[in-house]
Amino acid sequence: MNTIFADLPTTIFEVMSSLAREKQAINLGQGFPDDPGPEDVRRRAAEAVLNGYNQYPSMMGIPELRAAIADHYLRHQGIEIDPLAETMVTSGATEALAGAIFATIRPGDEVVLFQPMYDAYLPLVRRAGGIPKFVTLQPPHWTFSAADLEAVFSSKTRAVVFNNPLNPSGIVYSREQVELLARYCVQYNAIAICDEVWEHVIFDERMHVSMLNIPSMRERTIKIGSAGKIFSLTGWKVGLVLAAPEIMRVIAKAHQFLTFTTPPNLQVAVAYGLGKDAAYFTGMRANYQRSRDRFCAGLMKCGFPVIPSEGTYFVNVDIGAIGEMDDVVFCRRLVEEHGVAAIPVSAFYAENAVRTVVRFCFAKNDETLDSGLSRLRHAIRQR
Ligand code: PMP
Ligand code: GLN
C-alpha cells in the first residue's frame, strides 16, 4: 500500500466525533453548526431534486452557479473574474485543494505550509511529490514575520498553501500579513493556494482580504471557497475555485479525474444562495458572533484561559495556563470522563507541535453551549 496513506492516522475530526457518539458526549469538536442552514437555500435544492436536471452537469459547474460565483465575489470582495475562464465548482473545498495541489506541484518541488494546518494539506502535498517547508505559528497571535518566510522560501519553492481565516486558530490575517506573503510569492515565483473557506465567518466588523485581490497575485493565486461554510451546510460539499485561466486549465484536468462533477441540485441551490442580499451574510456573522461571545464568557467563568477568536466556528483555550501540558490526554479525558468532545490542536502540526491548545466549536445553539459549559465547569473543578 502507499505509505503516505497507510501510515496516516484517521483524521482527528472522525476520531473525536466517533468518540463523542460512543460516549454520548456533547460534540464541540468537529466543526459543524447545530443550525440547519437557511431554509430557502435548502428548499431550492429540494425543488431541484424533484423538478430539475439530475444528470451529469458540466465538469466545470453549471453556468448559473459559475455566473453567481463571479457576481458574488465582485459584490463582496471586489474581485473581477471571468465566470467561464476563471471559475470552477468542485465537490467541496477538499477536492479543490487536491486538484490545486496535484495540478501545481511537481515531484521535488518545495511547498510552504503554515502549521497548525488543516489536516488534508500535508498528505496531499506529499502524494503530489512535494517537499513541505513549515512555518510554525505560535499562540496567541499566530502571526508570521519576514524572517519566518525568509527561512522557508527558496528557488525550489513552487507553491504556498495559505489558510485565511485560519482553522484551527480562529485568526483573520490583516492586509499587511497577506501582502507580506504576497511579496515572497512574487519574489520566488510561487503560486498561492489560498484556502479561504472561512471568508464569510469573521467577527467584530473585520474585513476579509483575499489574496486574489492583491494586484501582484492576480495571476498566481488559486482561491478556494466552500458553500458548506458560507451557508452553514457543511455536509453539502460544494467547493468553489477561482484562478487565472492558465492555472485553471490545469486544475480542471486534475478535477476531471478526481470527481469530474458535483450534484447539480446542490449547485442550483448554491447559485441561488450566493445571490442572497447582504443581510443574510451580516445576520449569519452576528449569530455566530453572539454564540462565540456567550461561549467565551462561559469558558472564562469556568477558569479556562481563552485565546481570542476573530473568525471561523472555533475558539481555542490555553490549557498550559491551567497546568495541562498534553492536549491529546486532556481531550481524551474530557470526552471519556466528562462527556465533551474537543479537538487537540497538536493534530494540526507535523513537527514541533504546540501541545497546550484545545479547540472548541461554538457554532451551536445556546442549550448545547450551556450544557457543554456546565460539563466543562465540572471537569475543571474535579482536577
Ligand atoms: N479547509 C478548511 C480550512 C476547512 O476548515 C475545511 C472544513 N472545515 C475544509 C477546507 C473543507 O471544506 P469542504 O467541507 O468544503 O471540503
Ligand atoms: N473542517 C472541519 C473542522 O475543522 C471538519 C472537516 C472534516 O471533518 N473533514 O472541524
Morphology = globular
- Determine the N-to-C terminus distance: 44 Å
User: What oligomeric arrangement do these chains adopt?
Assistant: single chain
CATH architecture classification of the largest domain = 3-Layer(aba) Sandwich
Helix content: 40-55%
Kindly report the average pLDDT value. 97
Number of helices: 15
The CATH homologous superfamily of the largest domain = Type I PLP-dependent aspartate aminotransferase-like (Major domain)
Strand content: 5-15%
Question: How big is the Rg?
Answer: 20 Å
CATH topology of the largest domain: Aspartate Aminotransferase, domain 2
Q: Which kinds of small molecule does this entry bind, naming each only once?
A: 4'-deoxy-4'-aminopyridoxal-5'-phosphate, glutamine
Describe what you observe in this structure.
With 383 residues, the chain is of the alpha/beta class. The chain has two domains: 3-30 and 279-376, Alpha-Beta Complex (Aspartate Aminotransferase, domain 1); 39-276, Aspartate Aminotransferase, domain 2 (3-Layer(aba) Sandwich). Helices cover 43% and strands 15% of the residues. It has helices spanning 3-6, 12-22, 39-51, 63-77, 83-86, 92-104, 121-127, 146-152, 175-187, 227-230, 245-255, 264-274, 278-302, 327-338, 366-381; strands at 26-27, 87-90, 110-115, 131-136, 157-163, 191-195, 221-226, 239-242, 306-307, 314-318, 340-341, 343-344, 357-361. The protein has a seven-stranded mixed β-sheet, sandwiched between helices. It has a four-stranded antiparallel β-sheet with strand order 9-10-13-12. Strand 5, helix 9 and strand 6 (191-195) form a beta-alpha-beta unit. The protein is globular. The protein starts with a helix and ends with a helix. The model has no long low-confidence stretch (mean pLDDT 97). Residues 13, 30-31, 167 line the site of glutamine.
